[in-house]
Amino acid sequence: MATTEALAQFDIPAHVPPELVHPLGITESAEFLAAPHAFMAGLHGKYPPIVYSPSAQTGSAWQLTRYEDAYFVLRHPEIFTTAGATPFPRDPNNYFYFIPLEIDPPDHRKYRAILEPTFSPKGIARLDESIRRLANDLIDQFIAKGSCEFTRDFGRPLPVSVFLDLMGLPQDMLDTFVGWAIGLLHSQDRETAGRCMKEAVAYMQTVIAEKAQHPDDGVISTIVHSTPGGEPMTGQEIFGFVFFLFIAGLDTVFATLNNIFLWLAENPDRRQEIIDNPDNIDAIAEELLRVFSVTFSGRTLTQDYELRGVKMKKGDKVTSILPACNYDPSVFENPQEVNFHRPRKPNLAFAGGVHSCMGAHLARLEVKISITEFLKRLPDFHVSEDAAIEYWPGGVVGPKALPLSW
After folding, report:
1. What are phi and psi of 322, to 5 degrees?
2. At a CB cut-off of 8 Å and minimum separation 6, what does 119 contact?
3. What is the CB neighbour count within 10 angstroms for residue 344?
4. Alpha carbon distance 374, 193 (integer Å)
5. Which of 88, 108, 267, 294 could form an SS bridge with 255, CB 3.0 to 4.6 Å?
6. Which domain of life is it from (predicted)?
7. Mean pLDDT by 10-residue block, N- to C-terminus, for the chain (406 residues)?
8. What pLDDT does residue 90 have?
9. Residue ranges making up the domain that contains 158
10. Residue 5: per-residue pLDDT
11. pLDDT, position 184
């Protein structure tokens, strides 16, 4: 149990048993930031499967680390709602929901259907050639230098450039967009987050108005001109849909690639295993996505509910620590081992249930192409000498920079 002094600043609800109160420091503590995935893997041996973690930074919530529990929560929106699940600052006098994430069934379906042709396996497969071309164009820019800063030179521009083209947004604003995303997802300062939110909102309002007048084949235009259920969406619905996709598409694959390539740089024998087994790339990518998943999934209880003997109350916040769930030893044998021949079991890198990530097929393709094309051109690389790997705080887990040399 946490010390009385450590908990004095928090108002712990009366129904929370004292023995289940543990300030985990997920996303922000020095211990977490030193080695986030090792930290989350270690939660299984150190804490009960469900704990209540008070936090001034992220808000107090029940924290789930078991695969089975997260799997249940993700698939029962009637008990665990996503309404208000995202912590981004919004004007209470002009409140909008992040669509479709914060919309539960049955309305969720009509919004998600708008973009299914774009993000379906068939729709994403059409991007294969252009993504491979982009990967090699990026490598061309640094291969002769003998080094690169991976996050800046490859990890960020590849998925973000693909995303901007899909959305119908200008490539020359990539750095501005990423800056807003970093401010919203990783800033520990409310003033910075608020400023980034204000600037991003103003920009996206302008873009939406422009797409309304001048349609194109991008995702934003598709949303603006869609009529789910035969009716046009309201301005707030359109904005909430567009803004959610804008934020969601800027950081997650970027962080995932950074984590994967740090591991690749530190494990030359495993790089060679990938090179020697190109036909196994699907299983390779899936295992790396399991081991280096980067996000968390927040919910709010719509009713009193008991899970694994823990009594939760209506209105309580619940967070599934998805990376920890993907290290659940009761589901994945030797969970911290990267095993490219592991028996297939759905992992929770893209959450699950009706709110599973719409961009999962695109993310998988980008990961597979990045690994394959990079190792074709640069089979031997390592983390640059004297490089200190530091991780971003916040809700998407990944290193700030990754200097590589060869």
Report:
1. -55, -40
2. 358, 359, 361, 362
3. 9
4. 34
5. 294
6. Bacteria
7. 60 93 92 96 96 85 97 97 78 84 92 94 96 98 98 94 95 90 76 85 94 96 93 93 87 94 98 98 98 95 97 96 97 97 94 93 97 98 95 90 98
8. 75
9. 4-405
10. 58
11. 78
CA-to-CA dists, residue 115 to 24, 97, 352, angstroms: 37, 18, 18
Give the sheet arrangement for strand 382-383, strand by strand. Answer: 147-149, 403-405, 382-383
Residue 53, helix vs strand vs coil? strand
Return the structure tokens found at 262: 């740090």
According to the 3-state scheme, what is the secondary structure of 279-329? Answer: HHHHHHHHHHHHHCCCCCEEEEECCCEEECCEEECCCCEEEECHHHHCCCC
| Domain harbouring 401, CATH code | 1.10.630.10
Instruction: Give the CA dihedral 286, 290, 296, 298, nearest 10 degrees.
Output: 70
* C-alpha dist (Å) from residue 315 to 65, 84, 312: 20, 11, 9
Total domains in the chain come to: 1
The residues with which 382 forms a beta bridge, in sequence order, are 405
The answer to whether the beta carbons of residues 28 and 393 sit under 8 Å apart is yes
Residue 251 phi/psi, 5° resolution?
Answer: -130, -30
Q: Return d(Cα 243, Cα 248) in angstroms, integer.
A: 9
* Residue 287 structure tokens: 């295992």
Residue at 165: amino acid letter: D
Backbone φ and ψ of 62, nearest 5°: -70, 140
CA distances 260 to 65, 82, 159, 263, 322, Å, are 22, 29, 14, 5, 17
The pLDDT assigned to 89 comes to 67
Q: Please tell me the chain's helix, strand, coil percentages from 3-state DSSP, rounded to the nearest 5.
A: 50, 10, 40
Rounded-to-integer distance, Cα 90 and Cα 168, Å: 25
User: What distances in angstroms separate CA 181 from CA 27, 35, 160, 185, one per listed residue?
Assistant: 16, 22, 11, 6
Tokens in use for 85?
Answer: 């699940």
Other Cβ atoms closer than 10 A to 337 = 10
Give the pLDDT score at 1. Answer: 44
Q: Which pTM was predicted?
A: 0.93
Q: Provide the pLDDT for residue 182.
A: 81
Distance CA 351, CA 360 (A): 10
Contacts of residue 323, Cβ cutoff 8 Å, sequence gap at least 6: 36, 37, 40, 41, 292, 293, 294, 397
